[in-house]
Amino acid sequence: KLSEGFEEQNGTICLLNKSLYGLKQAPINWNKTLVDFLKEQGLNQLITDRSVFKNDDNSLILAIHVDDGLAIGDSSDIILKFLQQLQKKFEITYEEEPKVYLGIELRNEEENLFLSQPTYIDKVLREFKMDTAKSVRTPSTPGSIEDLTPNKTYPFRESVGSLLYLSNRTRPDITFSVNQASRKVENPTEGDILKVKRIFRYLQGTKDVAIKYSKGQDHLKLDAYCDSDFANDETTRRSTGGYIILYCGGAISWSTKRQTNIATNTAEAELISASECVKEVLFLKYFFNELTQENLRVNLHIDNQSTIKMIENGCNGKRSKHI
Given 133, 149, 196, 268, which is the most exposed site by the fewest CB atoms within 10 A? Predict the structure, then answer.
């Protein structure tokens, strides 16, 4: 279709020499162009994560998110040499020792790395007029009496979306509360809105909370923790499970969600949660091995003895073979 400013004659169309911004083909064409260039520079695309590249001797690793990138290397010279080649091909700007990447603030202190998003939290609190609210110590409270009056005027979907972005990046401590709120985006009530506002109030007092990674920790070990409630959803009676995986003392992966299967007892709910955790652990082990050629040890922490016995012995009993 002809762009504005051209006179259309007899159904004339344009033949493009390259993709224009906004076309549906543009993202894949950009990705192909970038990947081809990186391969010319001796960087190999990982199989486990197609947005991560490294050279043969692991002296340079590059992570790409659309058109933003983060490069780490054995020395500044290696990184700068690569960036100079990149600058010849594309119009770029770069920063040595970046303080922010994709809205996540990076802070190096002695032997520790901190990841946080205080600026984003300030922006979200102002947007939803919660920047002057009084802070609370927890993001949610159990067993509260809810107001079931429907409310269609409050921007509930937008507020949950903003919180989801935060909980998926640097704030595992609000993940459960945000997951509970996200189930009500279609028909929120006054009680649901109060729950979201409580999360905002919690963030008001914890803006500077950060994930901390320590260089002195064992860099060849993952600590995984998983847990589940039992049939806590009063509508579906499905259980909610979750896990968190730590590396060098800091969280690198976490999740909480309602289980797809209906568990018939607590041990079964815990086993399903452990299964989801191990899937993520396996991915991280494969990713780390491809990136560094080293194998991670894993400690899986479960607080249910029946579940531990089922994992050790297999689900062969009369009451557990259906799992």
Answer: 149
